[in-house]
Amino acid sequence: MSKILTFGEVIMRLSPPGNKTMKQSHEMEFFFGGTELNVASSLATMGCNVTHISNVSDDFVGESALSFIKSFGINTAFINKNEHPLGLYFLEVGSSVRASRIAYNRLNGSFANIKPEQIDWKKALEGCEYFHWTGISPGISEGAYETLKEGLLTAREMGIEVTTDPAYRSNLWKYGKNGNEVLKELVSYSTIFIGGVNEINEILGTQFSSDQQGFMEACEELKKQCPSIHKIFDKIRIGVTASSQQTQGRALVNGNYFETVFLEVDNVVDRIGTGDAFAAGLIYGLLNFDDEKALNFANAACAIKHTILGDINYCSAEDILEVMAGNSGGRIKR
Amino acid sequence: MSKILTFGEVIMRLSPPGNKTMKQSHEMEFFFGGTELNVASSLATMGCNVTHISNVSDDFVGESALSFIKSFGINTAFINKNEHPLGLYFLEVGSSVRASRIAYNRLNGSFANIKPEQIDWKKALEGCEYFHWTGISPGISEGAYETLKEGLLTAREMGIEVTTDPAYRSNLWKYGKNGNEVLKELVSYSTIFIGGVNEINEILGTQFSSDQQGFMEACEELKKQCPSIHKIFDKIRIGVTASSQQTQGRALVNGNYFETVFLEVDNVVDRIGTGDAFAAGLIYGLLNFDDEKALNFANAACAIKHTILGDINYCSAEDILEVMAGNSGGRIKR
Amino acid sequence: MSKILTFGEVIMRLSPPGNKTMKQSHEMEFFFGGTELNVASSLATMGCNVTHISNVSDDFVGESALSFIKSFGINTAFINKNEHPLGLYFLEVGSSVRASRIAYNRLNGSFANIKPEQIDWKKALEGCEYFHWTGISPGISEGAYETLKEGLLTAREMGIEVTTDPAYRSNLWKYGKNGNEVLKELVSYSTIFIGGVNEINEILGTQFSSDQQGFMEACEELKKQCPSIHKIFDKIRIGVTASSQQTQGRALVNGNYFETVFLEVDNVVDRIGTGDAFAAGLIYGLLNFDDEKALNFANAACAIKHTILGDINYCSAEDILEVMAGNSGGRIKR
Amino acid sequence: MSKILTFGEVIMRLSPPGNKTMKQSHEMEFFFGGTELNVASSLATMGCNVTHISNVSDDFVGESALSFIKSFGINTAFINKNEHPLGLYFLEVGSSVRASRIAYNRLNGSFANIKPEQIDWKKALEGCEYFHWTGISPGISEGAYETLKEGLLTAREMGIEVTTDPAYRSNLWKYGKNGNEVLKELVSYSTIFIGGVNEINEILGTQFSSDQQGFMEACEELKKQCPSIHKIFDKIRIGVTASSQQTQGRALVNGNYFETVFLEVDNVVDRIGTGDAFAAGLIYGLLNFDDEKALNFANAACAIKHTILGDINYCSAEDILEVMAGNSGGRIKR
Amino acid sequence: MSKILTFGEVIMRLSPPGNKTMKQSHEMEFFFGGTELNVASSLATMGCNVTHISNVSDDFVGESALSFIKSFGINTAFINKNEHPLGLYFLEVGSSVRASRIAYNRLNGSFANIKPEQIDWKKALEGCEYFHWTGISPGISEGAYETLKEGLLTAREMGIEVTTDPAYRSNLWKYGKNGNEVLKELVSYSTIFIGGVNEINEILGTQFSSDQQGFMEACEELKKQCPSIHKIFDKIRIGVTASSQQTQGRALVNGNYFETVFLEVDNVVDRIGTGDAFAAGLIYGLLNFDDEKALNFANAACAIKHTILGDINYCSAEDILEVMAGNSGGRIKR
Amino acid sequence: MSKILTFGEVIMRLSPPGNKTMKQSHEMEFFFGGTELNVASSLATMGCNVTHISNVSDDFVGESALSFIKSFGINTAFINKNEHPLGLYFLEVGSSVRASRIAYNRLNGSFANIKPEQIDWKKALEGCEYFHWTGISPGISEGAYETLKEGLLTAREMGIEVTTDPAYRSNLWKYGKNGNEVLKELVSYSTIFIGGVNEINEILGTQFSSDQQGFMEACEELKKQCPSIHKIFDKIRIGVTASSQQTQGRALVNGNYFETVFLEVDNVVDRIGTGDAFAAGLIYGLLNFDDEKALNFANAACAIKHTILGDINYCSAEDILEVMAGNSGGRIKR
């Protein structure tokens, strides 16, 4: 059983049921998630041995989050509790021409107050094949940045593959550091880049175009500036409306470009966590298949996640392989 | 802040959750609305100063309706209570090839028992720029007709713009008056007509065709017979299925014809109140933009309302402008 | 009022709300149904006089099932209670590219323990014009097979039309009999076959192709081997995705082939029971229309059932005729 | 199987879930009921053959009500549909020191528009042993009064026992008749009076005291003025708080006074329909037991109804006998 | 109509439905409240003209809070929006021997970031008869303390009555000030003290006993140290279990001691906000009745609030007067 | 961290929400539990290291059960999947004088099909201090009996304490063995008996009285016939009504009798699993306290479980210690 470590915030999502607005509601559904925990949960659901590192609040909210994480069989031994509240966000789910809206409450939460000294990275990473991080974590607080950096350096020393989805989010990075500079630094400690032209342009300050040619040039430039990166996989999600989406993957590995077919998803249930489903699918794919099949698996994982409510992809590898094989959902499995 | 007055029934909608039928349900969601209150609420949400005139029941149902209306910041000082029950309707929401169904209980309700003497129209209309009414109100009872007529005459005296959506509904008009005659009379006290060939044919007894030529001829005939009308705006909603709709607006102003693009809405959440969203969008547009932009804004308001549960368009002007700008909902606003 | 008898399991469906998975839920919606009861309920809703024969558990679950059946006005006088639990199944409803999943708990239930001696078939069938059965029942237990067989033989003696939807389900037939042999035997006691190339190939062990030519040949072969069959009606459901489906009917009657148009259903609410809606529509159609109109009615019934939650088609004949007339659901019936 | 006829409004109850107020809710649970239908449903649940006579609305609300009534196996052949809406009421459920509140919408509904000519009383009453009515029906409309009167006269001619719960409600009787006079007239067509000092004082204009002596004197006076009355049974419900109640029954039959013990109910779930549960329990008791046991059974039925949500007593005779035997609910029936 | 100003945090409550724990839930009910807003809402429900001063978040959560506040007709003109998230807390509701549990997330929220310069106190207080504050606000942040202090000084200058419920909460006061010192200072700017021996002992550092004698001595000491205080009203809530409570009020005014009876509440629905209901009842009482009746009214308001879900007392003055008159809730108001 | 092993069925509970009956519901809440899993979950919640041995169904229902069990951090490595459905039961929750009702569906489920050869008891019991079993398991099937017996013999060999709650249930034992004989055999492999006079009388066929004297004599007789038993602890639950209960514990250890106070629980939320809470509390107590304190802790655990919905006691040891200390729940923990 492959062992994987993920690091990042455990965040609670609160959302009025269905497509309601908050003004129309007296109740909200809640889910736990967080971009890296979403990756962890999906990998655990597919049978991997996963350790997630984070902080939760030392109250019944944090206890509930821990129960949730344990329910996937994820190792929680490296999750600490502190006196700060668990980070959370509110989501109004859009439909068709109406976009979804998010309001965050995370910048002073339990994860934002993480400190490097609370984690024994050597011990946590022992036996791991993959360490996954995203650009959200270092944007939350200096402590999260420092802690992550220490983990990355340890992982590199130990020769562990480091995957990164270095999403830059303009609503983070309030603590004084320059997001793009930090991301470039941390990417340079990583080995597999999950992102495309937008992400590269943001990190490097370049202006590559988003067509295939631009993608390939951007990848080369990234590899030049961050030489530890040896594989680049990109997910493309085209939102026709809030209820109809298309997904595609493309990659540059060893100078070879390849891409997947477009998968179409009508009747979208949830867009949150589709990128994380891609990342989890990719890691699972790299552990079990060749690079091209891994990309196709990742894209199918991304597509099927659009049909699952909440942050997390509850689908098994078998479910994903069916989508990858082109089987539409128009049947009933008895 | 523009001041607008609306007049009409406050009605409660009761609907089984989702697409369930009543036989399948033990609970119903409820919403307050009413065609003119829907216009009022949308205008208030967009920042206008709105007064709504109506009756509610003198019980906890009426109290709840008042709280709801106040939550938009709408002025309720001219709403009276009486001993009759609040009007209501039941809705079974259709899907795809199955149409929605409505059953009314309104003809002996608190609004049906409204009387002209209970309203000081001069005082209520003071400072207003617009007075909006629809063809529903005079169809409910003689008292509603008399009260509305007095309001319209007062508004015309005071030089206030009067907008009308003169929908003829065959399931009303049970109290003895001829609906089309009454509507023609009341339209002749109005200045902006929100309707098209169907409405004009019904009111005037004409038979214009529904193409552009027919629309323009119908408008000219209407202006001839009701000379106070100086602008005509029409909304076109094409229901592909109960779950897929198209909307378009067209207008004749000062002899100039113009029309909007078609907007497509998949995954329709609610069709009720989409015409009211158009009317509110139009009034807001006329107060803030030129006539053509107003029409486009109205059409976008109509489109986005299809994604909101209940009678009322909870969207802000910014949300509507995004749809008008052609931004699909396939993104998440963080 | 036409009198019809149906025989089969009363089964409870348990399903997380919406598109949730069980892991995401703490509650489930429940519905009663069962393929033959679905036919019975739809026919009763359309005004037929229906008797359903089955067993239920002798506890409050069985009592609830009986109340449910009575609510349609179905005659329950021939339903017995026994000490075994009511059969049930769990359903996770898919969406788009994600298929639905079912887990059964029925093989030791109250219906599985049915015995021929508990039913007075002569009395039950008195005055009936139609007797409907499906291939599910004889697959559940030997007792169900024996009981059904006795009923069929009695019906044939009494000259009653026997309709069958002989679906072969590989997850049944655990009690030792060969499913295809049994089905062939029971079909040979029937008069109207509701099924197509797949069903015929399974029962006869043939390999006809699924095009029109193959369909016609398969029908001829079936009629040769089971000469009591005089009409064959087939339903075709094409699942584009779990949320988008197409339905069509075709038939061979007296050597004449005819087929319906394709009906498209977007925003599918529920796929369970769509075949049963077809069967009920067909029986109603045969009782009220000519064969070709009956097929069109059945196809429209099948289409509209996709918009109804649960196993049962709650639509009236008028609702179905509207779909058959090509009226989409994009309107509101006030 | 004893045959019983009941006559009265089918009314829908709409109530926010739990103890919420309407202002706090966006949804309401709904139930069908009505004082006489509650008696009918309870009797049918206990195995009696019951016919209920009423009107329902000719829309999907009325259809749902019919399904509900049929689910008890009640004969609905004498229920008509008309174009008026189904009567309904809103209920805010109190708790402890907070009282429950009701708002009605029934005076122009489908039952209020009932007419004597729509019912063939001879046919409906054929074979009946009991006819049950209450004082609610004649208070709703002149038509309801006239229809009921015709039924009572027919029942008396046919020698059927007529039970009455002649509750006078001051919020009815809006159509011009004097409630107490009408009730006295109708009681004089009845044979078993279910009521006590309050009811007698209201009907006769007397001022008997509520102690045992006053009760006995009041009964004698009632029998003097309405000589067809031969048995009088009274229910006493003492509301300690909205959550804690006591019930007792007393009776005067053939000059003999007897009374039951007090039954205490903590954690009251619903107070509506407890009097109807008493009436149903009494009729069942009179059909199956002696007068004193009947009174005890009625009192136990009244007590257990306090634990059931909605208007209707879903308990079996066995459940009621257990309460009557003094078994508290502090056990689990496996 | 009496005009009252309140100042304090608008906080969102999130709670699993019923008595569930978070681990057992996937959804939470939400309510807006906050100790001073609870007072404001109750006063507005009873017909007072209320202005509430606070901050909300500049997102859809803050917008929802504003709608909620407006629904009571409360003036929101002095509420600002800022970029910090709305404060919130999670509540697990206990039952019987299990206590309720709360987890807060408020210390970096929109109200905690309030600043004195954002409020024009002179304008806000114009025409007010009462200004109400509690000890929660100054415990949240230095800004809240400074802002409140400025308001109090202005109110005193303008001769407005200042009521205070100076609750000391040990889980606040994280920003560096000594809670008891600050409270003593702010109480010395107030005129009516709502609290008893515990509160006085905390603020003054004294050790009076909680019997009547101790209460009277504590009051005298408080008046000596804070001479602007001229009336002292205390609420006593005895929690028998989480489901059963008793309330009593006592007071010292002009040297006269008086107290109310004990009111018992079984089947407690919600304990939150019962003290605020007392405060609102007291202010309403002081405006409308004499001091002793005001205390009794306050105590009845406190009792009835235990039966209402959420933070806010939705009861009218009439409802409260009934409880005060000793009418239990064991009846139904039709 | 103490290590404990439990063995028994994982069963799903399905229950209409609140106090509704199934006939009134369209949805049910579901919970996983089972008498021994309840003990396991409570011990894990209190921080113990617990392994549970069972079977679950090899479908998404079984997967959900596994997730649930893992969420407590319970070791599931010894749980197998098979093709039989997960056992389940339906529960209608009573109130006050109405008893709760249960209908089971478990006798052919995944646990009933357990086989001795599937478990490596030596490995599973390694390091365990306690092995807990109940009388439910051997009553389900011969396989369950054989498997349990093997486990008990292994545990005794390894010198592990064996606790048993030997509840005899008459609705089990359908597979041919005599329940009392089997229970006596299995108790004779155990060391700590959790039960009282009723259980001893059933197992030994004796007729001891239920007073203290009878209890002591029964204990002595049990120890004589089953000499491995060295401690006996009894729980007494007195159900005043379904909503009001009392609990007490008593014990005989080394010839010493001791008992706890009575704890009263009003407003009972759930009675299921209260005995299991006692057992878990007792084991936790024996591991951490002396025998008498252990009994008091067990009794408090039993009491507080009455306030938790579902089968499982979610309370921490701290929560239980508070109840044990006599702190009522009438307070809020902030």
Automatic annotation (TrEMBL), chains A, B, C, D, E, F:
| UniProt-listed Enzyme Commission number(s) | 2.7.1.45
One of the Pfam families matching this protein, by short name: PfkB
Look up the domain of life of the source. Answer: Bacteria
EC main class here is transferase
Keywords for this protein: Kinase, Transferase
GO molecular function per UniProt: 2-dehydro-3-deoxygluconokinase activity
Show where the Carbohydrate kinase PfkB domain sits: 1-308
InterPro entries tied to this protein? Carb_kinase_PfkB-like, PfkB_dom, Ribokinase-like
Q: Which family does it belong to?
A: Belongs to the carbohydrate kinase PfkB family.
The protein depicted here goes by the name: 2-dehydro-3-deoxygluconokinase
